[in-house]
Amino acid sequence: MYIYDDIDQKLVEQRVSQFRGQTQRFLKGQLTEEEFRVLRLQNGLYIQRHAPMLRVAIPYGMLTSKQLRTLAYVARRWDKGYGHLTTRQNIQFNWLRLEDAPDVLAKLATVQMHAIQTSGNCIRNTTTDHFSGVAADELINPLVWCEIIRQWSMLHPEFAFLPRKFKISVSGSVTDRAAVGVHDIGLQAVEEKGIFGFRVFVGGGLGRTPIVGKLIKPFVEWRDLLTYLQATLRVYNLHGRRDNKYKARIKILVKDLKPEIFANEVDEQWKLIKGGPDTVTEEFIRSIAGKFKWPEYDLNTEISDAFYLSQLAADAGFNRWSRTNTHPHKVSGYASVSVSLKATGAPPGDISADQMDAIADMAEKYGFGELRISHEQNIIMPDVRKNDLYMLWQELQLLNLATPNIGLITNIISCPGGDYCSLANAVTIPVAEAIQSRFSDLDYIYEIGELDLNLSGCMNSCGHHHVGHIGILGVDKAGEEWYQITIGGRQNGALKNAMNDDLGAATHSAEAAIGRVIGPSFAREQIPDVIHRLIKTYLRLRDSEEERFIDVVYRLGIEPFKKDVYADPLLSKPLTLQKESYV
Amino acid sequence: MFEFTPRLLRNGQVEFNEVLLFDSNDEINSSLGVPPDQKNWMMSLDSWLGKRALLLNRKFPVGILIPSDTDLSATLGNQTKLLQTRDVAFIAIDFPSYTDGRGYSLAQLLKSIYGWDGELRAIGDVMIDTVFYMARCGFDSFLIKEGHDPQLALEALGTFTEHYQKSYRLPSTADT
What we know:
The complex is a heterodimer.
Chain A: H1 6-27, H2 33-41, E1 45-47, E2 52-56, E3 62-64, H3 65-78, E4 82-85, E5 91-93, H4 101-109, E6 127-128, H5 142-153, E7 168-171, E8 185-192, E9 195-202, E10 214-221, H6 225-239, H7 250-257, H8 259-273, H9 282-290, H10 306-314, H11 316-325, E11 326-328, E12 334-339, E13 350-352, H12 353-366, E14 370-373, E15 379-385, H13 389-398, E16 413-414, H14 429-438, H15 442-448, E17 453-456, E18 470-477, E19 480-487, E20 516-517, H16 527-541, H17 549-556, H18 559-567, H19 569-572
Parallel strand pairs in A: 6-7, 7-8, 16-17, 17-18
Antiparallel strand pairs in A: 1-2, 2-5, 3-14, 4-5, 4-13, 8-9, 9-10, 11-12, 12-15, 14-15, 18-19, 19-20
Chain B: E1 8-10, E2 13-15, E3 20-21, E4 41-44, H1 45-50, E5 62-66, H2 72-76, E6 88-95, H3 102-112, E7 119-124, H4 131-136, E8 141-143, H5 150-156, H6 171-174
Parallel strand pairs in B: 3-4, 4-5, 5-6, 6-7, 7-8
Antiparallel strand pairs in B: 1-2, 1-8
């Protein structure tokens, strides 16, 4: 866990004072609505359906038990006793009062937290692999680099008013778990001739125009990372479109200019600043790494896994949970645990203040008091001794936090949808619940195997439906809620060395891909049946248990799925929209 | 246009803004398409470039106004020595809306590529809340928009006393 020094602390406190002044001026009528709008957004405050929503930054998804308890306090004192974890590893509170926001931010600052740049057209929270630092397949530890990028991007004077929001993701592992292919900038650690650096993808993103990022630089040495980012952002800031909000993301600029031209422009700018004051030095990396409190693993004694192994054999429920909700760790005798916030009926990603407190306690009892938020909207306990897993599992069960569904169909990624969000076209929470209820038979969901089901309430794609193996998108047709289904999306890995434009096409390689729409939309009541139909088709067509849903879609295309779904008289009529254009 | 309240932040003080934007169609003040050799004239970059030969060696150099959508490399190309303080009183960059952040990058480019080390002024939608970032990007003076207290804007230059980005200065050190 990164621990603030005096400078870090002073900056968040000065930011709270600044925002307190701005809020007071707004409430006194000295700042207009329009003037205040962007200022509050850059402090995480949206105006939502019920009340202002505050999005609190959890830098690269990492937080301490103490911070989680403070979030619980905020939820109880200023909100309705719960929060919502987002796909950008942040947390949102949906029921705040604007007048209280400065006090909430001041409280957060006491535990080294803030809401800076969690919204607005600026550089947002940098995200990474939720197993950073503990994954067995890491080339570099992305946590240090995420912190370097956090500092560089925070209150950046040149890039506070970009054409549109800007998201950076970092992957330090061989397996990309950070979805670097669908970010404005995706950084994939690579090694070249014994020196490490980053492969730079630019212009990926979901939303209205989903595009997989283009590789504009196969290798940027670590020391040049910040100046290269600065050059990239400068080209975007100067040349990104500002006349149309739907064409303002960097992906449109990269597409319009062509990736090669964009890359050349970045190089032109880079020449001017490469080697300048923002060049990363070894000393700087050491100082940042030195401010992290790293877990002190028990390495000396031979830790026996005997109890763990015996419980795996003795308790089928524990065995099942272990298979899905625990993950390999770089240190033998340890595992990482996914605490599932995807129990049937609970809005995906919602967490109550009581659950926060309980998880904070468990993080101290069974770990080093450190936690992660995953972009799948679950909580990760990164360092648990295998011999403690059985006890932890029993405690999690009592809190309804041990649903054994990580990586499976019911681990649904979802935005809050129309129940909360004023942008949404359709509700998502009842849809997620209906699917989870339909797939309540654990044996059956194990048989289906690995499957990402992602759900968004509108084109803004906060539920990342484009990269779900099955994606569901809420659409509005003549004032009614409908749902469009895509299949074949995937969120990783962007390792392919190509500058080709594969907009909209699901490809066969191991890179991120955008799902394809199977046909006309469905009514809400039909969704569980449609999903079930897709699953039945998959089970019929797969050549072995090892072939996942996504693999079958790549092998055979979407046609057999489409055919089966629309051949089903229950699904094709009469609830299906008749006249609709779809991609 | 006369102004009754001072709103130009300059040299740590609030001054009256007396700058006039030159209009070549203005028959009273225009001579050969350039303003008279008097204080406080400002010309757009395009018109300044067009009449540059007539504007050298003035007793009172003009200021230059750069709109936010200016493509400096297209306009100035590789004439990186063109902007000299003996010919140019100041360069003003316009912020048509405070959410248009191009001016911040233009300021950086003027300083780094075109070597401008004279006064750089922010005009347009300049708020109490944006002068700090502007100062860090190299602006020295700020014409604060109507409705925003210039005194508060002056104080806002000290909003943050620390910073992370090493290649951008802090306002407090900039004035020394």
